[in-house]
Amino acid sequence: MITIAVCDDNVQFAQLLRQHLQRLCAYAPQRLDLKIAPVFTSAKQVLDYLQESTIDVLFLDIDMPDANGFELAKMLCEVYPDTVIIFVSSYEEFVYSSFEYCPFRFLRKAHLTQELDATFQKVIERCTINNETLLFETTEGETLLRVADIMFFESQRNYFYIYVTSGKIYKCRGTIKYVEQLTRDFDFFKIHASYVVNLSHIDTTQKGEHLIMKNGKFLSISKKRASAFKDTYMQFIRRRISR
After folding, report:
1. How far apart are CA 40 and CA 79, in angstroms?
2. Could you report the per-residue pLDDT of 33-71, keeping only the tens digit for each?
3. Which of 52, 91, 95, 58 is nearest to 75 (CA)?
4. For residues 203 and 183, what is the distance between their CA atoms, to the nearest angstrom?
């Protein structure tokens, strides 16, 4: 199930947006299980809801009285990183400030009817991709992993290790070439003879020579892969911003 929610202290606008989303859900493919959560009017209500349930997509107002949208987005990125955030605001000057929180998109309230349909289609595509899985024959037996949960692969001789967001590490017999082939349809890149990384889980890059992953792991980029990695990663960032 994909749960979609709206958080805006302007109740009238929030209800209007929710109605538009309900209409779009009604026309979505039947194979998709979509749910619209009740409207939230504060960051606290969102966080309280997340104690018991999940939110896959959050349409989030920026200018709110208790904790603004940026503050809530920061908390979500740290604690609920799978939540896709779409900022919604009347203030277009916030668009550049919003990039720090890696939003999926930025919707202008004054242009809601023109921009919402395309945004909805793209975010559903994103959620579908996020739920893609890969099957691995690990030392623990067959293991099905979400692509979005795989941070990187590390090769050691005849084995490779899969590092996932939970902190668990899986061991599989196989080569880095096999890993490349398996992940070629997703946003992974071979940065070194020993590493294939998920571009979504890169925290920072350092002088094109090293990466720091979101789990704090420090990885080297080989010199012969540095230029191709830079181009691929920049294209990935541009896609993320333009979606």
Report:
1. 19
2. 888 999 999 999 999 999 999 999 999 998 887 778 888
3. 58
4. 20
